[in-house]
Amino acid sequence: MAAPGEPGREAAFARRIDPAREPGLSPEQRQLMAQVERAQRQRALQRRLRGRNTLLALGIGAVVFGIYGYTFYSVSQERFLDELEQEAEAARARARARAESAAS
Predict the structure, then answer these.
(1) Please, how many CA atoms are within 13 Å of residue 54, restricted to the half-sphere of its CB?
(2) What are the extents of the domains in the chain?
(3) Which of 18, 19, 43, 93 is the most buried (most CB within 10 A)?
(4) What values do phi and psi take at 26, rounded to 5?
(5) Is the Cβ–Cβ distance between 13 and 5 less than 8 Å?
(6) What PANTHER family does the record tag this protein with (predicted)?
């Protein structure tokens, strides 16, 4: 058996085995090992999907926030243009009134 500090040699507890070629394993032990490996792969897949779902949620949130912000910006610009148009109409009315009073 190799000493844990010895370079280049695997410790016995960290040695990977192939259940199909290991002579001392019973069919139940092989089945249990296969079941554990499947469960580990499933958990890894779920972690990956959770990460993708988080990124997707952040992307959708950014798009919604952008649309919401653009809508508020557009409405405020519309209101600004309406106020500007009202001021221009009032200025035209004052100019017409002055022109009429100067003409008389």
Answers:
(1) 6
(2) 12-103
(3) 19
(4) -85, 165
(5) no
(6) CYTOCHROME C OXIDASE ASSEMBLY FACTOR 3 HOMOLOG, MITOCHONDRIAL, CYTOCHROME C OXIDASE ASSEMBLY FACTOR 3, MITOCHONDRIAL
